[in-house]
Amino acid sequence: MKNIPISAMIGLFFTGLYFLIAIFAPLIAPYGMAEIVSDEIWAPASSEFWLGTDNVGRDLLTRLIYGGRTTIFIATMATILSFVTGSVLGFFAAVSGGWVDQVLSRFVDLIMSIPSLIFALVVLSVMPTTMFTLIVLMGLLDSTRVYRLARAVAVDITVMDYVEAARLRGERTAWVIFREILPNALSPLVAEMGLRFIFMVLFISTLSFLGLGVQPPQADWGGIVKENKEGINYGIQAALYPAYAIATLCISINLVADWILNRTTSLKGGRG
Amino acid sequence: MSDQPLLKVRNLKIGATIYPPGERPRDIEIVHGVDFDLAPGKVLGLIGESGAGKSTIGLAAMAYGRGGVELTGGEVWVNGRDMLRAGMRDVRNLRGGEVTYVSQSAAASFNPAKKIMDQVVEAAVLQGKFSRKDAEARGVELFRKLGLPDPENIGNRYPHQVSGGQLQRCMTALALCPEPDLVVFDEPTTALDVTTQIDVLAAIKEAIRDTGVAALYITHDLAVVAQVSDHIMVLRMGEMVEYGTVDQIINNPQEDYTQALVSVRSITHEEKIPTSNPLLRVQGITARYKGTDFDVLKDINVDLHPGQTLAVVGESGSGKSTLARVITGLLPPSKGQIIFDGRTLTPDLPTRPLDDLRELQMIYQMADTAMNPRQTVGTIIGRPLEFYFGLKGAEKQRRIQELLDEIELGTGFQDRYPAELSGGQKQRVCIARALAAKPKLIICDEVTSALDPLVADGILKLLLNLQKIEDVAYLFITHDLATVKAIADSIAVMFQGEVVRYGPKSEVLSPPFDDYTDLLLSSVPEMKLGWLEEVLASRKMESAGN
């Protein structure tokens, strides 16, 4: 872990900070999540309310902290789901080849041909909007992208002699996937994971902004933007704070992902 | 002019920056002060194992360092100018003008999108030595001299439209076209089949003699360099080991290392008499790849007896590796059957019982890709033990160490990753992995082709030794007849998907020969002067490369 470039350091620091705040939200937040603490709406920043209050007089900082918790939780779970499904299916398609590969790949092409936001809007308009639905929907939609990458990486690995050697030994497909292919495909996948996580944050924020994501009074960053967007007309900054949060989180994770990619795609045989 | 050397290298030092994983990049020296002279019209052979610095020195004659390699010290005088201190303009005139280069892989070096003639004349025209028309005339003349078919028109073809051996000769024409004073040949025949190699070698030799050009001839094969050079310089790890005339190096080497190089492949092996029951019977195998209508194997019949070695010899494309794929079940044959230890093997891998898989192991040509780079040596060797015999814990560790001892690696290797091993060590670990399954038959697919001669020798000795101890049979696939002579009990010669000659070693290797076997046998370079001329004079059949 020596020689971490300064950009990656900054990225790691902010990413860690956001995750810590998300985990310890109830301990850090000064007020309750949906507690109306002021008679004044869009009150300016003060020693009492560090970032002022929102459109119904709740403390904005508290909302941001809890909102981060929701956003990051949903994005994390959806990313994990998409990686597990996407990479297992992708590896399976690459190892099996033939019609299994064809069926899976064409199905994924089919899903990918529908813009994912539209797909999500359609599904959410008929399904109850719970956190569980959101995670599953986002995870599965995004797993098509992961599938593509995992399959492409694995196809290159399956033709290696050591995979053939494992097959000649009589190993089962599960061993070939998890012990021979996965360790060698991990680096690009981990780097991709960072990028996909950002897309998840943006995706859930978009959905919430459109009113189809996290439902009030639950807080999440996209939702806070939506609730406070009217304020912008009156020069109120409230809607911009969650936007800053989304932007800084995305940039920090990008910095980390870049560093991992750089480390692992070097041709110098580094074992990342 | 005549008493002044064309190329004078003094105390040449070459360095490079390496990037070890997890450490800071550091500079290392890869050539430690080499001196030599080359007179006009003479040929100097540079010989050594991989990593000896021979290609690096060859390129230094063009004042060039490849891929992060830097010429850090010393002098390289070409025609009386020190090229390491000359300006870019001089260097540009030098490259492609006074000194030209022939690389190992012509297929990778030609631009596939341009016609051969365009590339052959490019340097000569750019250097202003010839007009385009004169350069093309010279190109045609060189094509003729190098024995290429249809010299008038071959230049109008694209690189993929000629064979590998022909392309290598086109590249020689390319190098000779600007009338250089010096040509650097970097392993020009290494990637070719033996029967093709000999033609290219003869063409190069003749072209050198006719044009009076001087040459640096880089190779790892002493027998090859002995045919074309006047002097030989033996290199090892960036240092000169020995320098002398060809005659002296071949017949009277002074240094231990040179002696080892000269006496390489001196392994002898007593042919074993076939026992009554063959372990492996390949009966009437015909096979083709999916989606093609061409039989890669045509009615193959061979037997292999327990504890013996059957060598399958042939050029690339003769179907020898396909035969291995059929036997292992990776490619089900369209006709015929395989009987192993008295049982008929199912044609398809997934339907084979575990014991059949265990008793039939395989070792690959490229040990690099045959081992999972993310597994330690202990895991690689331990997996078959666990998988086939259910060994665990201390018992498994003990057996792994036993195997490591058997392949002469000893302790301290269990926790290493393949990237931390040398080429020879990697191949040994692959052998241990095969042995771990206690097989009755190991298929060795070109296991020594990617290794340096001395290392390959060690592997062959190890294999022979293991055969004595473990009584395992080898199906040994190779294109190298010297290897075959060293270890085989019986031999099958393959040509274009058919077995053209098959029998015990002594029978196959003694006359009367069929035409193809004769060609193959006579093409193996021998370490004696004048061998090339003798062979060319006595050949019956043209090689397929023509």
Strand content of chain B: 15-25%
The largest sheet of chain B, given as strand count, sense and whether it forms a barrel, is: 6 strands, mixed
Amount of helix of chain B: 25-40%
Low-confidence stretches of chain A: 266-272
CATH superfamily of the largest domain in chain B: P-loop containing nucleotide triphosphate hydrolases
The CATH superfamily of chain A bears the name: MetI-like
- Radius of gyration of chain A, in Å, reads 22 Å
Numbering strands along the chain, what is their spatial order in the largest sheet of chain B?
6-7-8-3-9-10
**Low-confidence region ranges of chain B:** none
Give the class of chain A from helix and strand content and strand pairing: mainly alpha
The assigned CATH architecture of chain A is Orthogonal Bundle
* Cα radius of gyration of chain B in angstroms: 25 Å
List the helices and strands and how they pair.
The complex is a heterodimer of chains A (272) and B (546).
Chain A lengths: L5 H18 L1 H4 L31 H37 L1 H15 L3 H11 L4 H28 L2 H9 L3 H37 L11 H8 L11 H25 L8
Chain B lengths: L6 E12 L7 E13 L4 E5 L6 H7 L8 E10 L2 E2 L5 H7 L4 E4 L3 H4 L6 H11 L5 H14 L18 H13 L5 E5 L7 H18 L2 E6 L2 H7 L2 E6 L2 E7 H6 L4 H7 L17 E8 L9 E8 L4 E5 L6 H9 L6 E6 L2 E2 L9 H6 E4 L3 H4 L6 H13 L3 H14 L16 H14 L4 E5 L7 H18 L2 E6 L2 H7 L2 E6 L2 E7 H4 L6 H9 L7 H7 L9
Parallel strand pairs in B: 3-8, 3-9, 6-7, 7-8, 13-18, 13-19, 16-17, 17-18
Antiparallel strand pairs in B: 1-2, 1-4, 4-5, 9-10, 11-12, 11-14, 14-15, 19-20
